[in-house]
Amino acid sequence: MTSRIIRIVSLIVAFVSILLLTSCTSSQSIVKQQPDSRLQQKLEEIFKVFKGDAGVYVRNLTTGQTAAIHPDTLFPTASMVKVPILCAVFDKIDKGELKYSQELLYRDSLKYDDGVTGSFRDSTKIVLSEVVMLMITLSDNTASLWLQQLAGTGATINDWLERNGFHQTRVNSRTPGREAQRRIYQWGQTTPREMAEVMAMIYEERAITPDASEQMFRVLSKPYWDGEALSQIPPTIHVASKSGAVNASKSEVVLVNGPSGDYVFCVITKNQQDQRWEPDNEGYVLIRHVSRMLWEYFEPDWKWKPARGFERWAKPDR
């Protein structure tokens, strides 16, 4: 009788442990979403004067507050497409088909433009992790297209996106069957909601494996291009981001580890009237205004403001 009781107690303890583990694992990513009407109004005030099409999606990962304008409308990704490329590369690494530390051989046939990687001499040796850094930190296009190929091409990346619930975000360039979409959206296409949720998935360690997610988040936390959304957030606050820009479209996805809670947002434009490659381009200004408003909204007790003259530290045009 005693041994039977012990077995029953052991089974109960094991069952309760599984329930607790499941609860802890899911609680990080499942927070009840609550539309925030006041935040919505503030976004609409910012967007109503924009000359072109624009969308935004905001989600506070801690409180569940959400607000959005055209969150499910398709927009060009521009260089934000490099986030899905990153995910597919890390998926290959997790499967053992690539190694983060493996040495690669650059060939002139890989050259796309005169960025860092495109300036390499033929037969230059470089480690895969360094190519990843060049793609995300510097947004190097030759490095990105090289990694797109190593990830299995756009078809493989799109399959990863579909399997993970992202039905609108796609790689178009150099991807058979997507020529029509490429003519409209160029390299890739996405929605503000999906791009923000890709970033949230990485941060919440739900992308591939927890260790892969952690490393991807570290990589995304070292952006060179910090003149738009990041310029409106205190430099002491940890952020991860990826921006993109083509003539008629500017975009940025950002995850902020705020003192009062983490939040993610994505702003994308298209069909802009203002196509100047200047720091005061209307798309860049929109991104800065949204970022500044969100910081002040979620962190009202902080009195920080960008230092006078921050504009002069904008990087040269992409």
Helix content: 40-55%
Characterize the overall form.
globular
Mean pLDDT equals: 92
Gap from first CA to last CA: 76 Å
Would you give an account of this structure?
The N and C termini lie far apart (76 Å). The strands form 3 sheets. The chain has a 6-stranded mixed β-sheet, with helices on both faces. The chain has 10 helices and 11 strands. The chain has 2 domains: 35-73 and 191-318, Beta-lactamase (3-Layer(aba) Sandwich), CATH 3.40.710.10; 76-190, DD-peptidase/beta-lactamase superfamily (Beta-lactamase, 3-Layer(aba) Sandwich), CATH 3.40.710. It is α+β, with helices and mostly antiparallel strands and 318 residues long. It has helices at 2-27, 37-47, 82-94, 128-137, 141-150, 153-163, 179-185, 192-203, 210-220, 282-298; strands spanning 34-35, 53-60, 65-69, 75-76, 103-105, 125-127, 170-171, 188-190, 239-246, 249-258, 261-270.
Short description:
The chain has 318 residues and is α+β, with helices and mostly antiparallel strands.
Blueprint (SSEs and pairs):
Layout: H1 2-27, E1 34-35, H2 37-47, E2 53-60, E3 65-69, E4 75-76, H3 82-94, E5 103-105, E6 125-127, H4 128-137, H5 141-150, H6 153-163, E7 170-171, H7 179-185, E8 188-190, H8 192-203, H9 210-220, E9 239-246, E10 249-258, E11 261-270, H10 282-298
Parallel strand pairs: 1-3
Antiparallel strand pairs: 2-3, 2-11, 4-8, 5-6, 7-8, 9-10, 10-11
Helix pairs in contact: 2-10, 3-5, 3-6, 4-5, 8-9
